[in-house]
Amino acid sequence: MTPPTDLLEVVRATDRAADVFRTGEPVVVAVSGGPDSVALLHVLARYAPERRLRLHVAHLDHELRPTARADAVFVAGLARSLGLGASVAARDVIAAATELGRGLEHAARVVRYRYLAEVAAALGAEVVAVGHTADDQAETVLMNVLRGAGLDGLRGMRPVGAWPVLDAAAGRLAAMDAARSAAPRLVRPLLAVWRADARAYLDRHGLPWRQDPTNREHGALRNRVRDCLLPALEAENPRFRQALVRLSASVADDLALVEAGLDAEWRRRRVPVDGLRVALRVDDWPRVPRALQRRLVRAAVARLAGGESDLGWEHVEAVRSLVGRVCAGGQATEDPARAGTGAGAGDQRRVDLPGGLVAMVGGGLLEIGPRPDSPTAARTPWPPAAIPLGAQVDLPGGWAIEARVEPPPAPETAASDRDPWSAAVDADRVDATRRGLRARGRLPGDRMAPLGLGGRTRKLQDIFVDGRVPRWQRASWPVVVSERGVVWLPGYRIAHEARVRPDTGRVLLLRARPPAGVAPMDASRDAGPPASS
């Protein structure tokens, strides 16, 4: 007779092998009330003293079935019996499905992980534990095979993984980098435990649990895989689940080697832009192995979509083909600043991707970001940042700006300074010392009256287009503003009202440091003087 699996020893071994927990840290434990999550909570309560873990229970009522409230009461009572704090809440998943334009299963997952992240943030926890088991791993791998997954899908889940939902589905791509760094890590201490062993553990310890009746409804793919497809395959191979889990472990080892190379290639190719877009250097694309091309495209989309993309094989191949045509001198050779304005599948200058994203190529760069008609594309990619006097402020996308106040220079000094990244403005007229200046991203409808145009205003959008600024650079390009409006567009000009005059008492000197690869604007179309004239 096979001895019962020691769940505590499995958790201990998983922690040692995958560095799941950090000594003394708070841990949010997601507990639905089902057998796997109850077993997880109980075994972690036994393990916590060894690592001085501070456990907190989190439960979400999805408001989808009549017994959900009783489940919440059960979980709260379970937490009390173990002397643990608990957060219990309810969310309207049906409303969320309407908001996201997706099915209930997907919406419930997004809402659940959002809630768990909120609980973790409130507690200052950097880790959330969930009760996925080896059976869940086998089901996930088989589901991914059915969907036509590549190596990533065959790898399935990992004991420690990145947060799976970064609110990209809600359209908040602007804060993606910040969200990624702030999101907790997701851990699965029972991933090496079979579901039957978890239930045997509950029986041995006399632990009650709740049954979710929706787990037997075959509307969800996972339920059909669990109840229909896997049993049919096990009739041919009784150890088919174990084979799937072994496959995922083998692929994970192979992918670790592949991803080490991908990380180096990503760092070499990525051009800093902003949280809305990813730009990669692709001027040598024909020499890049096809497998690496595909992984670069997928990595770019994943960074923006936070793992919630429906990116398929056909999308990746369309992007690869587009880049290949550009690098071969084919049809799609336009600058991304002027490409991508057309809509529809017939536009040869772009590839529309799931989640409101688009891929465009030009100037040796592949840019992936929100489609021009997407509401996200019009949003400020980063919040306003104060520009302190006598100091430098670092801005998103690799930009920096510094400011200092000096007595007015001699007229010939100002006239001789032709650096497009420097500007001299009247400190008092721009209210630099009383209320201060700010740098921010361009807003829809932004206008300025550039110096040299006699007070005539222009849209910043038109200035960027006429200045031949690639689209991927515009979202992170800083605009210096005061309470009175735009003061300076670095690389272009100051505002007419901000100019230094004969009666100027104090001059504010501004200097911008652009990221590598960013050139000043082409101002030949409006034939005005440079920024500091």
Protein architecture, described:
The structure is a single chain. This protein starts with 6 loop residues before the first helix and ends in a 20-residue tail after the last strand. The C terminus is likely disordered. Strands 3-2-1-4-6-5 form a six-stranded mixed β-sheet, sandwiched between helices. A five-stranded antiparallel β-sheet has the order 7-8-11-10-9. Helices cover 37% and strands 18% of the residues. The chain is an alpha+beta fold and 533 residues long. Helix 1 packs across helix 2, helix 6 crosses helix 10 and helix 12 crosses helix 13. The chain folds into three domains: 175 residues, Rossmann fold; 103 residues, Uridine Diphospho-n-acetylenolpyruvylglucosamine Reductase, domain 3; 134 residues, Phenylalanyl-tRNA Synthetase, Chain B, domain 3 (3-Layer(bba) Sandwich), CATH 3.50.40.10. The chain has 16 helices and 22 strands. The longest helix has 30 residues. Strand 20 and strand 21 form a beta hairpin.
